Amino acid sequence: MATPPVLTASLAERSRRAVWHPCTQMKALDDFPPRAIVRGEGPWLIDEQGHRILDAVSSWWVNLFGHGFAPITEAITDQLGKLDHTMLAGLTHEPVVALSERLGALTGLGHAFYASDGASATEIALKMSAHSWRNRGLPGKHRFIGLQGGYHGETAGALSVTDIPLFREAYAPLLRLSATLPSPDPRHALEGVNLEQHTAACVQALAEHLAEHHASTAALILEPLVQGAAGMGMYSPSYLSAARALCDQHQVHLICDEIAVGFGRTGTMFAHQQALGADGQPIRPDFICLSKGLTGGVLPLSAVLTTDEVYAAFWDDRTAHGFLHSHSYTGNALACRAALAVLDTFENDDVLVRNRTAALRLSTLAEPLTRHPRVKAHRHLGMIWAWDIDTTDPTFAARFHRVALDAGLLLRPIGNSLYFMPPYVLSEADMQHLVEGTLRTLEQVLACDAVWPSGPGERLA
Ligand SMILES: *Cc1c(COP(=O)(O)O)cnc(C)c1O
Known about the structure:
By secondary structure, the chain is of the alpha/beta class. The chain has helices at 11-18, 58-61, 70-80, 94-107, 118-135, 156-159, 165-168, 195-213, 237-249, 308-312, 333-349, 351-365, 367-370, 396-406, 428-447; strands at residues 37-41, 44-47, 52-55, 111-115, 143-147, 179-181, 217-222, 226-227, 233-234, 253-257, 287-290, 302-306, 375-381, 384-389, 409-410, 417-420.
């Protein structure tokens, strides 16, 4: 009887057998096994064979300062010598207190609730919003609004406010879908409609929906300024300002999902800070969801920040009026120390200013890509660049990803949207490698582009 030679199999082969990979049709791995990464060095990943791969998507949008960033490593190591983890019900510790105080000072939202991943942060914000209305005597306000193309994670509650059909369809019977309103992403504008008119039409749609449904609506959830999983769709801050005003007018919470765009990604510490209210000050959401960059991409941690008003709705002698949600690893001390090291780095190294210089340089280097004859739409904000490629080949993204790996680049287009979302620490040589490798990859992939009649391609992030 033949037994599989497990011990001599490559890491990729053992992974294919034993690990069920995320966001992956496992059968596809038969032909394209996963790359085995053995080391990280700054923005680079190094595989088993010693190939160097530039992590141009920040390992699924989480990494800020590269792999093995010393201040984070040192903070975690120091914390390991003191306290690794303790439950957070009835107990507390310095790292979680300090992190909560600092996030409150940065956002004006002084109450922080923790979980371990982005989808759980979405769940918490949704539950907290509806429960707070119930505690305030408005139990009918328990429905949600999301935006077309919005993405907020893949647990059942988060999927119900996520508008990515490929991720959602199989689970439709399990979900209570939210209302989905038009996205201000100008790529959805009708022919002959400019950005301003498109934004105004989306605001109008929101105004009409709220006028009719405010009594049953708890919250509007959105990704401020950039809809990541929709292919880095970028929209005007004026939509956010208008959404804030409309939510206030109709007693509906605004949940800003900053999981992907927080921590400097869009040029400001948080994306919603680019939207101003009538008083000329940045708008204040009722909830902010944070994860991904929160720990610099090193440890899983998420946080939901909220206001005194929401907090007060739970403050009561009755246990059932409390927010009784919990996760075992809530407020993990190691992860909180990593997050504190991230905040220290923003303060000490003037990260936002440094990023402006880096972004200008990368935009300049990327001009040949922007001017490429097969690029239909180009957009850039902070440390995110995206180009829509003129192709209807549904295999474009998967083929691009594979060819790019051979060119020493980790890039995963979403549908026909090619994007860079790199760590903030690229050198001039890294940037040149990124742009040159991308151009070469694009030529190679387009050269054997199949001609497809129509229809959307697979959009795996
Ligand atoms: C990644 C992401 C999530 C989900 O976070 P996970 O940690 O993957 O569960 C939610 N919202 C946005 C905007 C994201 O980009």
